[in-house]
Design brief:
Shape: globular
Mean pLDDT: 86
Number of domains: 1
CATH architecture: 2-Layer Sandwich
Strand content: 35-45%
Structural class: alpha+beta
Strand order of the largest sheet: 1-2-3-4
Number of strands: 8
Order of helices and strands: HHEEEEHEEEEH
Largest sheet: 4 strands, antiparallel
Number of helices: 4
CATH topology: Secreted effector protein pipB2 fold
Helix content: 25-40%
């Protein structure tokens, strides 16, 4: 019985050593790529970055919410011609849960935003006479900014949101979407002049 007992202990010890000696598979973290060129540029480390901001305006939404727009240009000193341009959009909710989120729109998305707001103005006028159960039209960006309008029966409204998890939402009037177009066009003018 003594030999069996020792053989059993030797066997268990061998398995334990084999388990420890087995190479551990290292799990690699998969860092999410920044969705916009602006965010990718801001994520760079070990370099000096110049950030030029130009305030474009803001819109007061319903229930104390607010959307602010800034044109932004990022570059390294001496490399201004390689700058990255776009908009920074900040949404703030008021009330019990005061939240805020920031989204970035690259230059091509700013142009698309302007065109989308033009289209939405025509579409909302077209839908006005129709009794839709619920329909919405929304423009979404790579940086988790969304803006659009909805029609539910005879009621219409507009909305904007920023963020994916912990999204911040601002409810607007349909007229505010026209203001967003004016702000986007103002931003395009400033950015193209740089």
């Amino acid at each position: 019985m003594g030999k069996r007992f020792l053989a059993g202990i030797w066997c268990l010890a061998s398995f334990a050593l084999l388990g420890c000696a087995h190479p551990q598979v290292k799990q690699e973290s998969t860092a999410k790529e920044p969705p916009t060129q602006l965010e990718a540029f801001l994520a760079k480390k070990g370099m000096l970055v110049i950030k030029d901001f130009h305030e474009l305006g803001s819109i007061n939404g319903k229930f104390g919410a607010r959307i602010s727009f800034d044109a932004i240009m990022l570059y390294e000193p001496g490399r201004e011609k390689e700058s990255v341009k776009g908009l920074r959009v900040e949404l703030k909710e008021a009330g019990e849960l005061e939240r805020e989120n920031t989204s970035f729109l690259d230059m091509d998305e700013v142009e698309s935003l302007s065109k989308a707001m033009d289209y939405v103005a025509g579409l909302s006028a077209k839908w006005k006479g129709e009794g839709k159960e619920y329909s919405e039209a929304a423009f979404s960006t790579k940086g988790d900014f969304q803006i659009g309008f909805y029609q539910k029966g005879g009621d219409t409204g507009a909305f904007a949101s920023s963020g994916y998890v912990g999204k911040t939402t601002c409810f607007l009037s349909l007229n505010d979407l026209g203001s967003v177009k004016v702000i986007a066009d103002k931003g395009l003018e400033w950015l193209r002049a740089r």
